[in-house]
Amino acid sequence: MAASTGSPSPMLRLLFLLARLELSQEQERQAVALCSAIDDWAELIRLAQDTYLLPVAYRHLDRLAPSALPPHVMARLRGESLLLIADNLRVAAEQKRLVHDLLEPLQVPYLFFKGPALAARYYDAPGLRCCGDIDLLIPRNRLVDLLARALQSGFQPSKPPRLTADRTALEFAIDRQPIINIVTPGDIEVEVHCQLDKKAALYDTDALLAAREPLQVGDTILHVMPTHELFVYLCLHNTRHYWSHLHWLVDLDALQRHPDFDLAAAHACARQRGLTTTVDASLELSALLANPDLDAATKQLSKRGRALYHACLTTLQGGLEAELALRRKRPAPEFAFHWQTTMRYRIASRLRRWVQPFRPSYFDYASRPLPPSWQWLYYVTHPCRMLRNLILSKRSRP
């Protein structure tokens, strides 16, 4: 990998070009030329796996059949891709099971975003889109019902651990965190959200659910976001993570190729959400990384586009450790850059960050369950427990 964020390696340049559903002739020519500069195909496979691009990359390389790509590497690409496609289809099957076994019987309003629902609507071959989990949005007032039924039906708690089907426990957990993770009987993680953003108040859950659209997938109807709304949300989510996964570029490409996509509607939605700068920078990054002449295109970047590009390179070249380092510098939980938000919101986020360690967590309840009328005691015991843990950790250090 390149040592400097300003100079991506031929390997990374090749993956940038392959991160879309279709290639132009110019992109194809440049991709074949870049294959001749690859001296470590095992590392390319690893990077494509880590950035969730491998099945899409294999499809392009199999069609292009560059002479520089050894047959044994192509065979490995095919084998690894088939394993990932099988996993992706298994996640999609678990999503349908979630609908049939929980959401429909309980009559819970919901929508899916990202993951297998996105793949089913916008990819010509949904199995190509790598999906590690299922993202589900439901109203806050139905979260306890859903989680209780799930935990009684073979689902397992993940975050927080030790979560039980007891309604008092569930109410306490939901009050402490907006996302609850459970694991299906088929061993697939489900992130259950009651709001899309943490504290920015960009999205109203009831309004999103009222505007959802049905998507027929085989014998199942999945409810999803309108295309323009999903597009804006993806720009926000992926920028928050510095575009550290290349399959997000494929997502943006897939949405823009879909007949339902309307750029004017996406821009209008971005203005409504206060996310115009985020969407503009994301579009700039997407166009840059699709350009066969990356170096020339980089010179035309705006200041915000350049900041996003450099952050993207940092995370791709440095991995999760580099992304976590950048996250610690975020001005707010939802935003990666200062230009995405206001000074007032950044100050409020910093104050919440200082207060957060003093708020009781579900661990406090799980360690000593108390009825609602006595749960105020956690605000006394929680700081004491944190102080005790800090003292013990210092004593254990050599």
TrEMBL record:
InterPro entries: NTP_transf_5
Protein name: Nucleotidyltransferase family protein
